[in-house]
Design brief:
Helix 4 (about 135-145) packs across helix 5 (about 160-170). By secondary structure, this protein is of the alpha/beta class. The chain is built from 10 helices and 11 strands.
Length: about 280
């Protein structure tokens, strides 16, 4: 597995997004554990989760607990950087709400520490800006957690360029990651990706395979991914992740998975080198 960096941590170039294993439509626990173990067997050393990755109101942190169980039952579990997030909530009716108050973020971090069973969270990220709370106060809570040693690395999610610069200033230059939606179907985070590249901050695309499921359909705007995939004899999903990795060395995609075969295919994207012509064709989508 090729590696990249998040702060001072060396991680696999492809991570694993845990959300599909805990929200609506999730698989049974046995298949989820098998999926995480397959990722570890394939060399994945970076897993992304959040306390809000759950389905029902009474199971906050379902995904964190699942990941902790999977890591504890695998020999390579101790080598994994686990990233979790706080500041988003799911009342249990399928909706998502926000609480960016410092009090909530600090309490959420303590709860995540307990569920993950660690003394310090590897990477803790403010999940999403809360318009009711000044951004500086929310990020200031993350700074306090970093200073207190409860988290080892600090990141933010769903942020714009101004918020990236503000967060990095509040954290005293210690912002190590930005997790934003980015995919063939969602390209509006390209300014944030470019800024992260400039600042040397890891950019973690969530839902990186958006749009690719339709790449093979007649008339799909994402057809170039299917054409390149056919030429290589591989999946369009693998091409998508390789295209993303080629954009910058700070990019670490975190494709979600709920089947062992899915994450195995995603991981293999790190070994795929696309030509300049292929990259240009995909960039034009």
């Amino acid at each position: 597995m090729h590696s990249r960096r998040i702060g001072d941590a060396e991680v696999s170039a492809i991570g694993l997004g845990g959300m599909p294993m805990s929200i609506e439509g999730r698989p049974d626990e046995a298949r989820s554990l098998a999926t995480i173990h397959a990722a570890l067997d394939a060399g994945v050393t970076f897993i992304d989760t959040a306390d809000a990755y759950h389905r029902d109101a009474d199971e906050v942190g379902h995904n964190e607990t699942l990941i902790a169980k999977a890591l504890a039952s695998h020999g390579a579990g101790a080598d994994v950087l686990v990233a979790t997030k706080g500041g988003h909530l799911r009342p249990g009716d399928g909706s998502w709400t926000l609480d960016g108050s410092p009090e909530h973020i600090k309490r959420a971090c303590d709860d995540s520490l307990r569920r993950l069973g660690v003394e310090a969270i590897g990477l803790y990220q403010f999940h999403r800006p809360d318009p009711k709370v000044p951004y500086a106060e929310s990020v200031g809570a993350v700074r306090d957690l970093l200073d207190a040693g409860k988290i080892r690395l600090a990141g933010i999610s769903n942020a714009n360029p101004g918020q990236i610069r503000e967060a990095n200033e509040i954290l005293g230059g210690r912002l190590v990651s930005v997790q934003n939606q980015f995919s063939p179907a969602f390209r509006s985070s390209e300014p944030e990706l470019r800024l992260c590249d400039e600042l040397g901050i890891a950019f973690l695309p969530w839902s990186p395979l958006g749009g690719i499921a339709s790449a093979s359909e007649l008339g799909s705007r994402f057809a170039p991914f299917a054409r390149v995939a056919e030429a290589h004899g591989i999946s369009p999903q693998r091409v998508c992740l390789a295209w993303m990795l080629a954009k910058s060395p700070v990019v670490v995609p975190i494709p979600g998975a709920s089947r062992p075969e899915t994450i195995r295919d995603s991981v293999s994207a790190a070994d795929l080198t696309l030509t300049a012509e292929e990259l240009a064709e995909l960039d034009a989508v």
